[in-house]
Write the structure tokens for this entry.
Amino acid sequence: MLNDYLEKELNSLEANGLKRKMKITSSTQGSRIVVDGKEVLNFCSNNYLGLADDFRLCKAAIDEIEKSGFGSGASRLICGNMTAHRRLEERIARFKGAENCLVFSSGYMANVGIISSLFNREDVIYSDRLNHASIVDGILLSRAKLKRYKHCDMDSLEEMLKQEGPFKKKCIITDSVFSMDGDIAPLDKICELAKKYDCSVMIDEAHAFGVMGEKGEGLAKHFGVEQEIDVQMGTLSKAVGSFGAYCCGSNKLISLLINKARSFIYTTAMPPMIAAASIKAIDIIEENSKLRKLLWDNTKYVNEALKRIGLDTMNTQTPIIPVLLKSSKLAVDFSERLFDAGIYISAIRPPTVEKNMARLRLTVMATHRKEDLDHLIQQIKTIAADLL
Ligand SMILES: *Cc1c(COP(=O)(O)O)cnc(C)c1O
């Protein structure tokens, strides 16, 4: 019975060009990586600042192993709450100017745990249509009424906010930088609407932390609305180059999460060396505006070149640059041709994006060199002339 199901599902994925296969990376995570035995330029990681293989993070991790060992032994609420975890939370809270902070073992777990412990079936959540899957899963788990507004469309959001309902709590949740489109949420306008309609606001800064804001604090800082956002979640797994996630907010919010967030309570604490490496990464991010400048210069260079070639990079405003191709097959063919030419950019297909919105998702790093970018642009131009 199960076997029939497996075969049918897998065949259907294959037939629709949607079957996913994993490649294997055998190098460290830099701007050049070895994938399936082939050295390629890496244009698909979320390691925007090149910190994932930075020797300073490695050293911080090794130093912590020497002090604290490897595993954390238990959940945070039993005996797994080690000094490195609390130091990391204090470091993030200081960097973000927040009252308090709680670290989770991943961004996925943070969203699921935060949303399901703050909201229930008596509440309503207004969620951007393109929010990350972990937000959607958190809302489903909470059983709050889900209202999905059109992507970054404030008229659509206000239309929904105006409708009366028997709801106890209301909350707007949005990604701050959208992971597949590279555009940004209008947090200033969202906060205005929230005030007008007596709603709270939660943001997911996964792709903004380390990238947006004067020192990399995130998009809330960029818009100057940090004080108006109730729940600021972000990850340590993207620009920070590490692993895990945070939630910043009031002392009351953090206390409630410690008591109620099941993905915090019922899971083992992250190894302390990961917390130590994350602290080092945040030190580097805060002190090095040069890294962010390189990232933005590279981003601008690639985006302008792709536009000149006539490709649709949608409404990107960040180092995430989509190249919209619509057809899944075309996206896969394009990605394979690039791989043959020594460039790794993955094809993004439904269900990660909506139907007929398949694309290449290109991400720029601070550590790409000018000749890397020129090679990329030249190859995209050649393949586009061939395939499009
Ligand atoms: C990657 C991502 C997550 C999940 O974070 P992990 O630490 O990888 O689990 C959550 N939200 C958004 C917007 C993301 O891009």
